[in-house]
Amino acid sequence: MLDLNGKSILITGGTGSFGKKFVEMVYDRFPQVKRVVIYSRDELKQFEMSQYYPQSMYKSIRFFIGDVRDGERLKRACENIDIIIHAAALKQVPAAEYNPMECIKTNVFGAENVINAALDCGVKRVVALSTDKAAAPINLYGATKLCSDKLFVAANNMKGLRDLRFSVVRYGNVIGSRGSVVPFFLEKRKDGVLPITHADMTRFNISLEDGVEMVFHALEHAWGGEIFVPKIPSYRITDVAEAIGPDCEQKLVGIRPGEKLHEEMITETDSLNTVETERYYVITPSTPTWDVDDYLKAFNGKRAEIGFKYNSGTNTEWLTVEQLRDQIREHVDPDFEV
What we know:
Elements: E1 8-12, H1 17-29, E2 35-40, H2 43-52, E3 61-65, H3 71-77, E4 83-86, H4 93-98, H5 100-121, E5 125-129, H6 140-154, E6 165-169, E7 173-174, H7 181-188, E8 193-196, E9 202-206, H8 208-221, E10 227-230, E11 234-236, H9 237-244, E12 249-252, E13 264-266, E14 274-276, E15 280-283, H10 292-298, E16 302-303, E17 310-311, H11 321-331
Parallel strand pairs: 1-2, 1-4, 2-3, 4-5, 5-6, 6-10, 7-9, 8-12
Antiparallel strand pairs: 9-11, 10-15, 13-17, 14-15, 14-16
């Protein structure tokens, strides 16, 4: 049973949507957590977040300004830290296409800095956040996150005798996260026109709460080197438009640079190393430091069929228009009405 009471946790990119929800759920479930370090580079966001977590009430929280690109600063922040959650990333696809080296510096070199800090500072567990765009990437953002995933998986080969495990959680679009389609459509419906990139476009869907639950699962169950993938529903972009603006015009505007028609979280090639458990698929490392058969027994799992792939367009579970509206009310805007 996961118990973070008495533990010191550092979260990179801690002022983002995920970081805020993670901190909220940690304090809700583990009020005796020893230390929570919010490591990010935006002083304004840190100030704003600190208003929700005043030190007079949350004596264990710390706000540490720094960039994952700065290895020395990161290492200083990781002193006496037990757990690192790596959520920092440049993730806007068009911006990454236009500024490729900036994306590489943060998402690839930053990941390597996290790994080195964990190795040097006695950290016990590291969980890195990935994205569906890292599977068979066609844009630079996805390519950098694939590199990041590979770095964290391979880091288990360098830990030596340390009690240290690196793992990755990979999931789809978070409903209501900054820059995502739901808040974009909620704003655009005021104009009466919703821009649709392609009528057949689909995406996976997950809530922030479920994303945090995945991280908790990885902290408790990872053996080292796994990429955890959730079993989640898909939605059609036209259904999101119908859910938010049924009276709005749906205007086709074309797919943006580096954008896929459907997202994939497990490729056909990944199936060779994929196992299925009750709640998750797990892509095991190609050269694991443990026995896969033992892993299957421990988690009552089974190997995926050769050729299996997990794609938002061929998914077996779909959100209806009404379910999407319920999701928006639950996770984005409780006052949402059509």
